Amino acid sequence: MVRCLMFHSSAWSSQVNSKPLFKKILISNRGEVACRIIRTARKLGVKTVAIYSDADRESRHVKLADEAYRVGPPPSSESYLNIEAIVELCLLSGAQVSGNHTSRHHAAVHPGWGFLSERAEFAEKLKQAGIAFIGPPTSAIISMGSKSESKEVSRFIMISAGVPCVPGYHGKNQDLDFLMSEANKIGYPVLIKAIKGGGGKGMKIVYEPSEFKSQLQSAQREGEKSFGDGTVLLEKYLLNPRHVEVQMFLPTNFMFRFGDMHGNYVYLFERDCSVQRRHQKIIEEAPAPGLSPEQRIKLGEKAVAAAKAVKYVGAGTVEVSSFILDSNGDFYYMEMNTSRGSVALLPIFADLVQWQLEIASGNPIPLAQAEIPCIGHAFEARIYAENPRRNFLPDVGRLIHVKTPKESESVRVETGAESGDEISVHYDPMIAKLVVHSPKDRTSALTLLHQKLEEYQVVGPSTNIEFLKSLSSHPAFVAGEVETGFIEKHNEQLFPPLPERPPQNALINASIYSASQEIKSRLGTGFVGQTSNPWNTLHGWRVGGQKVSRQYEFSTMLLDSSSPVPSSCSVNMEFGGISDLPSTLNFDIKLPSHEVEGNVSSHQVITYLDADRPTATSASGDTITSIVDGKRDVANVASMGIPWPQWIKLSKAEELDKGVSGNAVQAAMPSKVIKVMVAAGDQVVMRASKDGMVFDVKAQVGSMVKQGEILVLLSWEG
């Protein structure tokens, strides 16, 4: 293993007459993608230029880059998809490339993956401006970037190679009646896809003809909004498929043009991306479980054959979808794009970004196919700000507390977010990718994944961390029985009923936190400026050295449930009286023995209870969140309302009486209002015990709303 790792890291420098790398590159991306590129560029001595929208001004990728420039407002269409602005910034920043080049600008752009990485017009604009594009040529992007054209090209390639393609329609006729007739020919269920879609956007599954029109319109809207093109294609939706991708590495543009191929198109084996929600991957693994050596070689060879046929040069992947593990081992070619996956690279000890920079600078691939090892097994878990128990709806908000596992040769955390950052409604809610590798086998790698998920802590928006723990420990997943419908198939086991009470540790932590903040507030060191914080309302109270008894009652919300657990919990505790503010508070809780540590000037308190690992507690506004590690049989996360003094509770109750409890339609998730279809005075048909009408419409077209924000007020009759 060590020999392979050293060989890959030094292979480039050992080449005779190797060409120098770019001195500076602009990264036309954000978040974990930009951070990942910056990490390798820094290692190679390449300067980096970041771009940011107004929403990302304080983001991690901006801080890590050598330079950073504003590209536009928060919406992607006005910032990270703004081709003209990015080209201008590239020239302005002077991202120079070294070497004997005669181009007027000598600038270079790394698009990352997603956003503009598959936009042919972007690659063409860069070419016209004399800017190097670290990716495939325009012709290949046109052929493979549009899913519709990609299907036609790929169908010919794969059928010629004796590989069947999924039945479907990929033409330009977008008439509703025509598409419905094509769907009937294909046979239901049918998959509708936006031709420029990706990441699950613009994809809809239609099981019955009666659903076709509404699902088509939804896919077209998403395609137009996210990619500027509402054109769709149709495919037969295959039941119980597996989604497998083959990572390739290909020569650079000028190599292809001059025929200097070095005989070295290579594939870097495959990864299984079957387990998905909302058509987006959440866990990947490499190599794909259950494939025979013959299947693995056949997949790789067909991927390279497809790339050669369309002169696809740079660094891209062929995604092989609908790979059904039956007695015949059939698989169907789906599409080609420019994504990449860390999980496929760890077993071969490769840094894809380094390979991209080297090859884009004109250096040949240093390895032949036979020299690329595949050792052990790797997993990648994607950490999202979302609520799995609410159909994985995305969440937004400030990351109050983030603690990641310690990185090593076997553990990598690819993230663009850290404590204090905002998860914005404008972008994908991914927080990080947790990647682990074991040189032994799948079982060892899965054990390591479990351990590192236990160490991952996020306080703020809801996350899928607890769900990933349940998913990766499910018996079917452990056995390698994966498919794209895995979550739906095992829904009951993956979403067991929530416990009635939170872990005792969580209650202890919440109580300690409440006490410490109450003391700080009464000593005049509370959270200044947070008017909604209950501790800011406490005045005139001083501790004079005696012990004070305090009881806290919490209305708890466990894990990521959408409503509080119906029972309240109380903890009796005593804390030592103090006359001035110490750096650490010690508490005696009337519960099992424990230790307490925590700087009272911070927003966190950490406890150690019995043999458990540390528990982190943080607060925002009037909510405390406590994360308990080392507990597999109960919810590991509990959010608790901060206990308000009785006189404050009464005043808040009076305010609530003036509200519209039970008469409001609220936003189910952070979102943008696209259309308002009711007005004040409209009669509404509700599945309720009485009739009503629209009293007031709070929502306005184009406005951004938070989860729980009131959209419409209703009044009941009778």
UniProtKB/TrEMBL annotation:
Key word Chaperone present: no
Residue stretches making up the Biotin carboxylation domain: 21-492
Domain ATP-grasp: 155-374
GO molecular-function terms, A-Z: ATP binding; metal ion binding; methylcrotonoyl-CoA carboxylase activity
Origin: domain of life: Eukaryota
Named cofactor requirement(s): biotin
Protein name: 3-methylcrotonyl-CoA carboxylase alpha subunit
Organism in which the protein naturally occurs: Puccinia sorghi
